[in-house]
Amino acid sequence: MNIIYYASGADPEVWLKAFRAYLPDAQIRIWEDGDDAPADYALVWKPPAAMLRGRTDLKAIFNLGAGVDAILQLGDALPAGVPLIRVDDAGMGVQMAEYVSHAVLRHFRRFDEYEMLQNQQQWRPLPQHRKEDFSIGVLGLGALGNRILDGLKVFDFPLLGWSRSPKQIDGVQCFHGDAGLDSFLQQTKVLVLILPLTTETENLLDESKLSQLKQGAYVINVARGAHIVDADLLKLIQNGHIAGATLDVFREEPLPLAHPFWSEKRIHITPHISALTVRDESAKQIAGKIAALERGETVAGLVDQLKGY
Ligand code: NDP
């Protein structure tokens, strides 16, 4: 079996070592411009169009991450009829649950304010927020959204979720589709974004949507920066409707120095680290899926290119 590999920004040797450990019989090579020798599978992260254009010999393309917005931008350079399969959790879900739980609790337990008080050497207990007022709404109920909700369940916050199709999740009030979005937002105090970036979800959170959140809302974005209209979020923080935000993802990364998010004290910024790809788990998962495909089985994580995720 021949496999071609290309991952933008990653150290190829460490990835190849992991893949070779799980696929000992495969010939895995790093793809270079001009390489059009036969291949059965491609392992990619943000590949150039030239790697995949016309490659109808591939049995599948594996995206080395959960988000497929970057690879789908290749458009018709993606070979028609070749399945695109994404990484499905593979150790990212638990990191997302850690990150979101931390952001929720920091805000709910007023730790930022206690930090300020400590800096002023002030011993001053603040009134506790009421848990029943702290409904947490998760936009996106896929592999990662579900894991985030599982992590939050132990804290007994009211939980809500929104997806494209109807869902039933124990302990979570579920909404779906365009028709369900406004009711979801109106009942949400802490908004968590874990949607894929598609033509439907880009700019979804503009002023009209964000202003439907409960007064004093909080926004946590661990999905993609382009879900939120930056100026609208800033405006609603500055007029007090939204209390603050924890943002891990941005329209432009690294976040440009001149971006007003940097100077807004009520916004916490992290450099796209909420869930890092776990190399070994991802390689193991992909190797397992290749073995399943070779046996003629179906695998999880197949991307619906029309839906965009
Ligand atoms: P999944 O494909 O498993 O889940 C996506 C969820 O979003 C589904 O519940 C889906 O609804 C819902 N959804 C998609 N489009 C719409 C829509 N138009 N309206 C309503 N709901 C919609 O994805 P994952 O959970 O694995 O990952 C989500 C995203 O997280 C990735 O696409 C990626 O962009 C981002 N990510 C960010 C990382 C980071 O480090 N910050 C790391 C990893 C991922 P339905 O269930 O009905 O299909």
From TrEMBL:
Key words of the record: NAD, Oxidoreductase
Coiled-coil regions listed: none
One Pfam family of this chain: 2-Hacid_dh_C
Segments forming domain D-isomer specific 2-hydroxyacid dehydrogenase NAD-binding: 103-274
Presence of the UniProt keyword NAD in the record: yes
InterPro entries in the record: D-isomer_DH_CS (IPR029753), D-isomer_DH_NAD-bd (IPR006140), NAD(P)-bd_dom_sf (IPR036291)
Keyword Nucleotidyltransferase: no
Protein name per its UniProtKB record: Glyoxylate/hydroxypyruvate reductase A
